[in-house]
């Protein structure tokens, strides 16, 4: 059984910073990629950032480029999201996700952590 557990969400003023953490449990689990998604009320879930362990390639959503940084440790099945210069429109539930193998998308998801940015 693979579980993803997020932490680090909360309330912050616009212009502030937060750091999200995610750890995947499962004795033999090794992910192909890990990433962060978010979903705001009334909107579709969107990719925030993803990291592919094999070539260390990183993708960012257009709205967070230059402000957010994803990092992690494949051996520890952990991924982090450093969020700087936060804006009210960054308010959403943030989900950690993991892909167990290439070509199938993200197949494991965390419960989500709320990030609220006040103006």
Notes on the structure:
By secondary structure, this protein is mostly beta strands. It is 0% helix and 53% strand. It has no helices and eleven strands. It has strands spanning 3-7, 10-13, 18-25, 33-39, 46-52, 57-60, 68-73, 78-83, 92-99, 108-109, 113-118. Strands 2, 4, 5, 6, 9, 10 and 11 form a seven-stranded mixed β-sheet that branches. Strands 1-3-8-7 form a four-stranded antiparallel β-sheet, with no helix packed on it. Strand 7 and strand 8 form a beta hairpin. It starts with a strand and ends with a strand. 31% of the residues are buried. The model has no long low-confidence stretch (mean pLDDT 94).
Q: Could you write a compact summary of the structure shown?
A:
The chain is mostly beta strands and 119 residues long. It is built from no helices and 11 strands.
Total number of β-strand segments?
A: 11
Low-confidence runs of at least 5 consecutive residues: none
- Give Rg in angstroms: 14 Å
Q: Any idea what the shape is?
A: globular
SSE class = mainly beta
Give me the strand/helix succession.
EEEEEEEEEEE
Mean pLDDT: 94
Oligomer: single chain
Ends apart, CA distance between termini: 40 Å
Biggest sheet record: 7 strands, mixed
Strand content: over 45%
Indicate the percent of residues in helices.
under 10%
User: Helix segment count?
Assistant: 0
């Amino acid at each position: 059984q693979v579980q993803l557990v997020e932490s680090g969400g909360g309330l912050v003023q616009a212009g502030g910073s937060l750091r999200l953490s995610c750890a995947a449990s499962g004795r033999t689990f090794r992910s192909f990629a890990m990433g962060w998604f978010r979903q705001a009320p009334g909107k579709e879930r969107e990719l925030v950032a993803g990291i592919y362990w094999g070539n260390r390639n990183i993708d960012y959503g257009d709205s967070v480029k230059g402000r957010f940084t994803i990092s992690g440790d494949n051996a520890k099945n952990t991924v982090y999201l450093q969020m700087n210069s936060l804006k009210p429109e960054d308010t959403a539930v943030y989900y950690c996700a993991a892909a167990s193998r290439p070509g199938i998308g993200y197949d494991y998801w965390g419960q989500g952590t709320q990030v609220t940015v006040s103006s």
